[in-house]
Amino acid sequence: MQKDFLWGGASAANQIEGGYLAGGKGLTSVDLIPHGAYRREILAGLRHYEDVPEGQFYPSHEAIDFYTHYKEDIALFAEMGFKAYRFSMAWSRVFPTGLEEEPNEEGLQFYENVIDELLKYNIEPIVTINHFDVPKTLIDNYGSWKSREMIALFEKYATVLFKRFKGKVKYWISVNEINMLFHLPFMGAGIYLEEGENREQVLYKAAHHELVASARATKALREIDPDAQMGCMIAAGDYYPYSANPKDIRAAQLANQENFFFIDVQSRGKYPNWTKHKFAEEGIEIGMTEEDEKVLAENTVDYISLSYYSTRTSKAELEPGEATTGNAFVGAVNPYLEKSEWGWAIDPLGMRTTLNTLWERYQKPLFIVENGLGAYDKPEEDGSVHDDYRIDYLKQHIEEFKAAVEIDGIPLLGYTTWGCIDLVSASTGEMSKRYGFIYVDRDDAGNGTMARSRKDSFYWYKKVIETNGENLNADNFK
Asked: Which residues are the active-site ones (predicted)?
């Protein structure tokens, strides 16, 4: 790997910060999603966040309290040798309702403190502007990204960040897993689907608003801090055909086509032809203007970042019981792959395949900003966690992206594992679905001391970074 390869970890504000009303922060979409029986329907935009009984537990309100533990946590990241840390800023911590003319100084100062702490340890901050959170007021007033009003509000928010952190943040990501809008609309974009609304119309119009807002933010970044770079982000993973049946192959092609839609626009600067035919045939109106076309064409991204957890499998005719869901993507069960404890397919080679697909399609530098294994961890009496299963998972994936770089010649900027410290799962709201190198004493009901401790994988990853990925031996930390 190149000497400046950015090894590190990743998290999201709504899954680690807590302090949900501290420092003037306003309510955000994730603060409205409870743990438990109603969560999935709310995430999918099928149940309104108010349509739940009283007394629900909202895990984002405290999360793991990074808001007060950030110095301790960053020191642990530095101990591992992180070269980079990808995190997000909560829109409602900077603009509590999203409608203010001036930003919340206390919120900005918190993020400046985090960035300065990272820079103290020579850790490169990689900042996601919008990671699964929309201010509640914008949901209530505008229906979130259903409304074109969101474009200017997002641009205002992004512009404040660029001006405040000019020279300190070199890598920005506009929207986390932007394609999640199509799969879990409320989780991805704060969108509730009203009864009688045309789902396709709502989601493609919302997608257009997000894409234009991202392009306008990219334009603003280049005007304010031309040395910084803007990336887009996709929840990646190629769709395989279930068989050589031409119908399965076509099903996979169509699924990939839809999944690449956002990145086609953000990387190429224009809508793919198939969308124009779809919109005409189905009467979908996205409100495209000449100015939209111009800003999209002139403000494509500098690099493509991605999360990778698994590939997916497409079958034209799914029989009852054949479907599986991994990271919100529905498909057929791939009989050649093992699964995680949460049913997500495990496909290390698929990471190399996916990187090749993205590079061949876009010819822009890539950045793996999420990859990891959600698993149950059982601390020993002395507090240690022997997570050899996590080490094995990460080792196999690192081997594959190294091959993509060293054999396939793909330019890869870095690798930041997901949930470098245990955090609240976005999909399930659980703490027990752990990803981190650092164990946090907190359970699914919000009980625990919040104490941090190092897992075996902590020491293993430290050695991986020290050797720039050359020593992946599972026993190298002992």
From this structure: 370 (nucleophile)
